[in-house]
Amino acid sequence: SDAVTFFGRTQAGIVTPAQDRLHFVAFDVLTSDRARLVQLLKDWSAAAARMTAGKDAGEIGATAGILEAPPDDTGEAIGLPASGLTITVGFGPTLFRDATGKDRFGLAARKPAALADLPRFPGDTIDPAISGGDICVQACANDPQVAVHAIRNLARIGMGVVSVRWSQLGFGRTSSTSTAQATPRNLFGFKDGTANLKAEETDLLDQHLWVRAGDGPEWMTGGSYMVTRKIRMLIETWDRSPLGDQENIVGRTKGEGAPIGQSREFDEPDLTSTSIPTDAHVRLAHPTVNNGARLLRRGYNFVDGSDGLGRLNAGLFFIAYQRDPRTHFVPIQLNLARHDAMNEYLRHVSSGLFACPPGVSGPDDYWGRALF
Ligand code: HEM
């Protein structure tokens, strides 16, 4: 079957081979009642276990209930297979202490140091209305209707407890997270995900992806930190730049995706060679210039209609997982924000940071149980 197992030591949707579609949502918690929040996480875990198995969100289903009550599933996924659906949850810094400094749920003492707010990066044009959030849910599937159905039903179940702060649809994965996958292309037309962390590289995943015992509060062991950045790509300007310039900006060839000066996609970039410019993206993002840091990138293309100025509102919804953003995303992005030739074509418009707890072990467990 095409169902991805929901229960496990780690959450699905991180090293799971990246599916083609994304529906991402960030919620704010409306209540300050800890018991209601915990009940929601239990209800969500049960619904997620069902939906990822290709079933209705509730036990009765979309059409079998009494006529006097709203159904416990919304119905648009009837007849559709599980489609590789994964649902991954993360907790934002504001769940532990809100913007006014209030510790609504008595969680402040359990906030990981790694969940420190991201700094403002040079050139940032972040819109707070589409950034942050108390809880995020990443739904990935190979059918967009299945991903939307999952988010919609979780929002429905959460009515009165959480409200949607912002959301994002994505199509076309921009990374591979398994060596079994072919490398896809982003909206600049370049292969994206070549040098990504892959599911098969288990030693590297232990080193760079999964939070280990002793890293911080015990409830995050087996979890991972997620950074999201909605990055508008000025594709019309890009499309008017010569092929050679495009390749120099990325540091790889457009066809094969090989490092400039080499011939095959998976050849290791030779950073001692001057053929890769000093301001090329892959040089500045490379582990050798970032203290060895590696990310698991899991982003998606987006086109949110047009911008009213004759341009497509298009770009990359960047998602990266790591063991600690302070040693991984932050230094890499600082390096890119300062020096990357690609910046001329990019605008970072939204930012998010979430602590994704370990996996839900079985039907009696729920997302974040060790936190509460
Ligand atoms: C590599 C595109 C944003 C981190 C690459 C590659 C491309 C690319 C085409 C080469 C293929 C590959 O190895 O995957 C883009 C575009 C971006 C963007 C179009 C924005 C819209 C970012 C951001 C970060 C990042 C924000 C992290 C802060 C990396 C890393 C690599 C990489 C770590 C691998 C470098 C290596 O080890 O060779 N990116 N990227 N990228 N990118 Fe980006």
UniProtKB/TrEMBL annotation:
User: What are the protein's UniProt keywords?
Assistant: Heme, Iron, Metal-binding, Oxidoreductase, Peroxidase, Signal
A Pfam family found in this protein is Dyp_perox_N
Provide the primary localization: other
Q: One biological process GO term for this chain?
A: iron import into cell
- Give the cofactor binding note: Binds 1 heme b (iron(II)-protoporphyrin IX) group non-covalently per subunit.
EC number(s) on file: 1.11.1.-
Cellular compartment(s): Cell envelope
The record ties this protein, via SUPFAM superfamilies, to: Dimeric alpha+beta barrel
Q: Which family does it belong to?
A: Belongs to the DyP-type peroxidase family.
Recorded protein name is: Deferrochelatase
Natural source organism: Paractinoplanes ferrugineus
